[in-house]
C-alpha cells in the first residue's frame, strides 16, 4: 500500500508540476476573518492604556502640590493689604472683622433652598464635582461663548475661595476638582453648605456671610427672620454684588430676585403661586436704613474690591492678598474735602455730586468722589449711578465719529436751522433759536443740538456706536435700551457714570489711546503668585481725531461763546464739555418743578495729564432740582478746584499737534464749503482751523472779491454823481444881510445859482457867545428880538458846498434913537466873524424844514410878549392879542399888546394896542435868552390863532 501510495503521491506531484502557472489548483484556501479589526482594537486599547497611564500620571503630577484641606482655613479668614500708588503705603488692611458665623441648624430652609436652586441644584446628588453640570456648561459656552455658564458646584466654590489662587489654568481646575472630592469625603453636605453661607461676599463695606447680610440689608436680628422674597434677593447677590444691590440698583435687583424665585419654583422648592406672590413685593420695601458711615478711603477701596473679585474671583477679605492700587492719597484727601463741604459751598444737604479723577496715560484712577453724606454700602454717585449725559456725549457720538470716519475739519460748516429727527419729531436748541451756518467748533462750543444731530446722521448710527464702544460705552447693551438718534444729544434712558465718561474723555487727551479706568495694578497671593491686572491700551481713534476734538473742546473753555469759560485756570491748558439734562413732563408735574429746573449738570474736562468727570444733581426728583447759578455752576466749580490742586508742583504739559494734522486760515462759514480767504476778506471773517493732512481747502473765496468789485462800481457812480453835484453847485454864492430896526435885528440869507438840494447853516456870534440859528434847505430869515444895547452881532451862512458869507450889525446903545438903523452890507469874502460870545437873547429859529419852530421871547421884568407860532419856517398871519391895563405908574411898559407876524423872515415891531403907556418904548436893559419859551401874559380875552 505504501508503494501504491507512493505511486499515487508521485503521480499527483507530477500532475501538479505539469499545470500552467497562474492557475489555481483545486479549491482556494479561506482567509481567517477579523484579523484587521482585532489589530485596530488592540491598537486603540494600547493607546488608551498609554493615555490612561499618561493621564493618571499627569493628574497626580498636577495634584501633587495641591494644598491640604485645612480646617482652620475653611473656617477662618486672612486679611488683605491695600497699597497706594507708591507701592509702599498701606492705606487699609481689610479682613473678616464684620462677619457673624451662624450654624447650619440656625439657617432657615427657605434660605438654603434659595441658594441651592440658584448656585447648585444637584448639590445633594454629586460628590463635589457635577459632571452632568459641566457638560451642560460646555454646551452653553460652545453656543453662547466662553464664560456664558459656569460649572462649579458649591463645594468647588468653597475650595476655590479657601485654598486656590484665581488663576484660570487647567492645573488649578484639576486641583479644584480634586480638593472638592476630598472635601466631600471629609465633611458632610450640611457642613459644606454652612461654610459656604458664612464665607460668601454680599456687599461693599465688608459684608460677608448670610447673617451679616440679613442684618445689613433688612435689619433683622437673625437670619431666621428672613421672608421668601428677602431670601431670594440675598441668594441673587453673590453673582454681582454691586450690580444687583437693592439699595443702589433696585431695577437690576428686582430682575435678579425674580430669576431666583423662578428657579426655586422650577426645581420644586416653592410653588409657582408662592413665587408670583413674592414677586409682587417691592424690592426696597423692607430694606433697613443704611446708617453706618464710611471711613477714610472706603469709596475708593469699594471699587478695588469690586475689581479684584471680578478679575480674579479671589476673596479680598479672606484670601490674604496684597493688592496694589492706583490711589493718589493727596488727590483723594482733597476730593474728600470737596465732598465734605470744605472747599465749595453746596446749596443744601441733599445736593449730590460724583466725580472720578483719571491719569490720562495709564487710565489709573487717582481719586473717587462717591457722593456727599454717604453711608457704607450706599449709592456711589461716581461708579454706580447712571444718568443722562446731556451734551457731554456730543464729542463721543457726534463730532468725534465725523472726524474719524469722514475726516471733518474743526471748521466743518453745518447749518443750524429748523430741523427734525428722521421720524419727523422736531429737535430744538436750548435757546429755541438758530445760528445759520456755523463751524463744527462753534456748534460744539455753543452746545447747539441741531448741528450735533446732523453730524450724527452724517456719520451713521452704526459708526457712531462703534466709536463710542471703543471708548468703553456699551450704550444699548445694558438694560435693554433702544439705541436711537436721541442719543446724539444725550437722550439716554438710563445713562452713564462719571467713571465711564472719565475713561472715554481721557482717550482724547491720550492721542486716541484708550485705557480702561481701573484701581488695581496687580495682586499678590500668599503662595507668591502675582497677577497683573493693568488693562492693555488699545487705539480707540486716530491721532488726528483726538487732537482735533481736543482743540474743539478747548474752544468750549476759551472762546467767548464757550459754555465752560468758568473753568479757565492760569497756567493750565484745559479742554472739556458741559452737559445738562431735563426732567420729564410727568416729573415736572408730579413734583412741581419749573421749566427751567434741570435734573443733571455735568462737566467732563481734561488737561494733558488728568481727566475729571463731574456730575451734580439730586438722587431723586422729589429731593430737588437745579436752578440757581450756584447749583448750575457747581460741576465746573468742583472741576476747577480739583484740577488746580492735583496739578500743583507737576509739569503742566501741552496737547501736541500730530503730523497728520495741518492748520489753515479759512473764511468763516457762509455755505456748505470752506474756502481760503481772499485779499478782500475782512480780517474779522478769517479764522484758523485744523484739517486732516491732505483735506485742507484749496479754492479761494470770491465772496468779498465780488463785493469789492460791486462796491468799487458803486463808488464810481457816487463819484460821478458827486462831481456832477459839485459842478452844479460850483457857482453857488451865498449872501446874508443883518439890520437893526425897532428894537430887533432882522437876518436874511439866500444864494445865487442854488440847487434844489443846497442847504444852509446859519450861525450867530454875540458878546455872549455863538450859536446856530438855522440849518436846512432854501433861503430864509430870522428876527432877533431885544438885542443887547451897544453890542455887535455877527452872522455867517455856510452852504453844503463849502461856500460862506458873513454880515454884522451893531445895536445902538440906550442914548441913541430907538429908530436908528445901524445895518451893514453883507460881506462876500466867505469869512466868518471870529468874535463869538455866548448870547442869551432869544432867536426865532427857522431851519427851513417841514417842522415849524416855536419862536419865543424872554419877557422883561415889566414886559409881556406873546410870539406867534412858526409853521414851516414862516410865521404868517398869526396874531397874538393881549391887552393889559395897569395903573401902576412905576411900570414903564404896562399893558403891551404884541402883534408879531413873521412872513419870509420879516418882523413887525410891537405896536401900542390900547395899553396905558405914559412914555415911549425903551429897549430892555437885560438881553433875552434864546430858545427859552416866554410865559404869555394872562389875556383878558381869548387870543385867536390863524394857520
Layout of secondary structure:
Elements lengths: L1 H16 L17 H29 L7 H5 L4 E4 L6 E5 L14 H11 L11 H14 L9 H10 L6 H17 L2 H11 L1 E3 L3 E2 L1 H9 L9 H9 L13 H17 L5 H8 L18 H15 L9 E4 L3 H11 L11 E9 L5 E5 L24 H13 L6 E4 L2 E2 L5 E2 L8 E4 H6 L3 H11 L1 H9 L28 H12 L3 E2 L5 E5 L5 E3 L5 E2 L3 H16 L16 E8 L2 H7 L6 E9 L3 E9 L10 H4 L1 H14 L13 E7 L18 E7 L10 H27 L3 E9 L2 E9 L6 E19 L2 E6 L6 E8 L4 E7 L137
Parallel strand pairs: 1-5
Antiparallel strand pairs: 1-2, 3-4, 5-13, 6-7, 6-18, 8-11, 9-10, 12-15, 13-14, 16-17, 17-18, 19-20, 21-22, 22-24, 23-25, 25-26
Q: Whole-number radius of gyration?
A: 51 Å
Count every helix, treating DSSP H or I runs of 4 or more residues as helices.
Answer: 24
How can the largest sheet be summarized?
5 strands, mixed
**Uncertain segments:** 1-7, 20-27, 144-149, 816-947
User: What's the N-to-C terminus distance?
Assistant: 187 Å
Average pLDDT taken over every residue = 79
**Order of strands across the main sheet:** 2-1-5-13-14
Which range best describes the helical content: under 10%, 10-25%, 25-40%, 40-55%, 55-70% or over 70%?
Answer: 25-40%
Structural class: alpha+beta
3D shape: elongated
Approximate strand percentage: 15-25%
**Annotation, overall tally of beta strands:** 26
Amino acid at each position: 500500500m505504501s508503494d501504491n501510495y507512493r505511486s499515487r503521491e508521485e503521480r499527483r506531484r507530477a500532475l501538479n508540476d505539469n499545470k500552467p502557472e497562474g492557475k489555481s489548483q483545486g479549491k482556494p484556501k479561506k482567509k481567517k476573518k477579523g484579523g484587521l479589526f482585532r489589530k485596530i482594537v488592540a491598537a486603540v486599547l494600547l493607546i488608551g492604556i498609554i493615555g490612561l497611564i499618561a493621564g493618571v500620571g499627569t493628574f497626580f503630577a498636577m495634584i501633587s502640590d495641591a494644598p491640604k484641606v485645612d480646617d482652620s482655613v475653611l473656617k477662618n479668614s486672612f486679611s488683605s493689604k491695600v497699597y497706594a500708588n507708591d507701592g509702599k503705603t498701606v492705606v487699609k488692611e481689610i479682613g473678616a472683622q464684620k462677619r457673624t458665623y451662624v450654624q447650619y441648624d440656625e439657617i432657615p430652609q427657605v434660605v438654603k433652598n434659595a441658594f441651592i436652586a440658584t448656585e447648585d441644584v444637584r448639590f445633594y446628588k454629586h460628590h463635589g464635582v457635577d459632571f452632568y453640570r459641566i457638560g451642560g456648561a460646555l454646551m452653553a459656552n460652545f453656543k453662547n461663548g466662553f464664560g456664558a455658564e459656569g460649572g462649579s458646584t458649591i463645594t468647588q466654590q468653597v475650595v476655590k475661595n479657601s485654598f486656590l489662587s484665581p488663576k484660570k489654568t487647567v492645573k488649578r481646575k484639576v486641583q479644584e476638582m480634586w480638593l472638592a472630592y476630598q472635601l466631600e469625603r471629609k465633611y458632610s453636605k450640611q457642613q459644606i453648605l454652612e461654610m459656604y453661607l458664612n464665607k460668601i461676599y454680599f456687599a461693599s463695606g465688608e459684608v460677608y456671610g448670610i447673617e451679616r447680610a440679613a442684618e445689613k440689608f433688612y435689619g433683622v436680628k437673625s437670619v431666621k427672620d428672613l421672608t421668601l422674597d428677602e431670601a431670594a434677593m440675598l441668594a441673587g447677590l453673590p453673582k454681582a454684588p454691586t450690580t444687583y444691590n437693592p439699595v443702589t440698583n433696585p431695577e437690576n435687583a428686582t430682575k435678579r430676585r425674580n430669576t431666583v424665585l423662578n428657579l426655586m419654583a422650577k426645581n420644586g422648592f416653592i410653588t409657582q403661586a408662592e413665587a408670583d406672590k413674592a414677586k409682587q413685593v417691592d424690592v426696597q420695601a423692607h430694606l433697613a436704613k443704611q446708617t453706618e458711615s464710611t471711613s477714610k478711603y472706603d469709596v475708593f477701596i469699594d471699587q478695588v474690591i469690586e475689581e479684584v473679585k471680578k478679575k480674579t474671583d479671589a476673596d479680598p477679605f479672606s484670601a490674604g492678598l496684597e493688592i496694589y492700587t492706583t490711589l493718589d492719597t493727596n488727590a483723594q484727601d482733597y476730593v474728600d474735602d470737596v465732598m465734605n463741604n470744605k472747599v465749595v459751598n453746596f446749596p443744601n444737604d441733599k445736593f449730590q455730586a460724583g466725580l472720578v479723577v483719571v491719569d490720562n496715560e495709564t487710565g489709573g484712577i487717582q481719586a473717587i468722589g462717591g457722593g456727599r453724606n454717604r453711608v457704607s454700602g450706599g449709592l456711589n454717585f461716581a461708579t454706580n449711578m447712571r444718568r443722562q449725559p446731556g451734551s457731554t456725549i456730543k464729542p463721543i457720538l457726534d463730532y468725534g465719529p465725523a472726524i474719524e470716519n469722514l475726516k471733518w475739519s474743526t471748521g466743518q460748516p453745518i447749518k443750524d436751522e429748523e430741523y427734525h429727527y428722521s421720524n419727523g419729531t422736531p429737535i430744538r436748541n436750548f435757546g429755541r433759536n438758530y445760528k445759520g451756518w456755523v463751524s463744527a467748533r462753534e456748534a460744539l462750543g455753543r452746545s447747539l443740538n441741531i448741528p450735533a444731530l446732523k453730524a450724527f446722521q452724517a456719520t451713521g448710527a452704526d459708526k457712531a456706536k462703534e466709536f463710542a464702544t471703543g471708548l468703553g460705552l456699551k450704550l444699548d447693551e445694558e438694560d435693554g435700551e433702544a439705541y436711537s438718534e436721541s442719543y446724539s444729544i444725550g437722550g439716554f434712558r438710563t445713562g452713564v457714570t462719571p467713571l465711564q465718561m472719565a475713561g472715554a474723555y481721557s482717550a482724547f487727551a491720550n492721542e486716541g489711546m484708550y485705557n480702561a479706568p481701573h484701581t488695581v495694578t496687580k495682586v499678590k497671593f500668599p503662595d507668591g503668585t502675582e497677577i497683573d491686572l493693568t488693562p492693555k491700551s488699545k487705539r480707540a481713534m486716530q491721532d488726528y481725531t483726538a487732537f482735533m476734538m481736543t482743540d474743539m473742546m478747548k474752544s468750549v473753555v476759551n472762546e467767548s461763546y464757550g459754555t465752560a469759560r468758568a473753568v479757565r485756570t492760569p497756567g493750565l491748558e484745559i479742554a472739556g464739555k458741559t452737559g445738562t439734562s431735563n426732567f420729564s413732563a410727568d416729573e415736572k408735574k408730579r413734583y412741581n418743578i419749573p421749566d427751567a429746573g434741570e435734573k443733571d449738570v455735568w462737566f467732563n474736562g481734561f488737561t494733558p495729564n488728568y481727566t475729571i468727570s463731574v456730575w451734580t444733581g439730586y438722587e431723586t426728583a422729589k429731593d430737588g432740582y437745579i436752578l440757581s447759578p450756584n447749583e448750575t455752576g457747581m460741576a465746573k466749580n468742583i472741576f476747577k478746584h480739583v484740577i488746580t490742586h492735583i496739578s500743583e508742583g507737576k509739569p503742566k504739559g501741552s496737547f501736541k499737534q500730530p503730523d497728520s494734522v495741518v492748520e489753515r486760515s479759512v473764511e468763516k462759514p457762509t455755505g456748505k464749503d470752506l474756502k481760503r480767504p481772499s485779499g478782500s476778506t475782512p480780517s474779522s471773517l478769517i479764522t484758523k482751523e485744523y484739517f486732516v493732512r491732505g483735506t485742507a481747502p484749496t479754492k479761494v473765496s470770491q465772496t468779498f472779491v465780488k463785493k469789492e468789485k460791486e462796491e468799487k462800481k458803486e463808488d464810481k457812480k457816487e463819484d460821478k454823481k458827486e462831481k456832477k453835484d459839485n459842478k452844479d453847485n460850483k457857482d453857488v454864492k451865498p449872501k446874508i444881510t443883518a439890520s437893526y430896526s425897532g428894537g430887533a435885528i432882522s437876518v436874511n440869507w439866500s444864494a445865487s445859482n442854488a440847487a434844489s438840494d443846497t442847504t444852509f447853516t446859519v450861525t450867530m456870534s454875540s458878546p455872549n457867545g455863538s450859536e446856530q440859528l438855522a440849518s436846512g434847505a432854501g433861503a430864509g430869515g430870522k428876527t432877533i428880538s431885544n438885542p443887547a444895547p451897544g453890542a455887535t452881532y455877527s452872522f455867517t451862512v455856510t452852504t453844503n458846498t463849502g461856500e460862506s458869507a458873513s454880515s454884522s450889525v451893531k445895536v445902538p446903545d440906550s442914548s441913541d434913537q430907538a429908530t436908528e438903523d445901524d445895518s451893514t452890507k453883507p460881506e462876500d469874502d466867505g469869512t466868518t466873524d471870529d468874535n463869538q460870545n455866548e448870547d442869551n437873547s432869544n432867536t426865532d429859529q427857522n431851519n427851513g424844514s417841514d417842522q415849524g419852530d416855536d419862536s419865543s421871547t424872554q419877557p422883561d421884568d415889566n414886559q409881556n410878549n406873546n410870539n406867534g407860532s412858526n409853521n414851516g419856517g414862516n410865521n404868517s398871519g398869526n396874531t397874538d392879542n393881549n391887552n393889559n391895563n395897569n395903573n401902576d405908574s412905576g411900570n414903564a411898559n404896562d399893558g403891551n399888546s404884541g402883534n408879531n407876524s413873521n412872513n419870509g423872515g420879516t418882523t413887525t415891531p410891537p405896536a401900542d394896542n390900547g395899553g396905558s403907556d405914559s412914555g415911549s418904548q425903551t429897549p430892555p436893559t437885560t438881553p433875552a435868552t434864546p430858545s427859552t419859551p416866554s410865559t404869555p401874559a394872562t389875556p383878558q380875552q381869548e387870543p385867536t390863532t390863524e394857520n
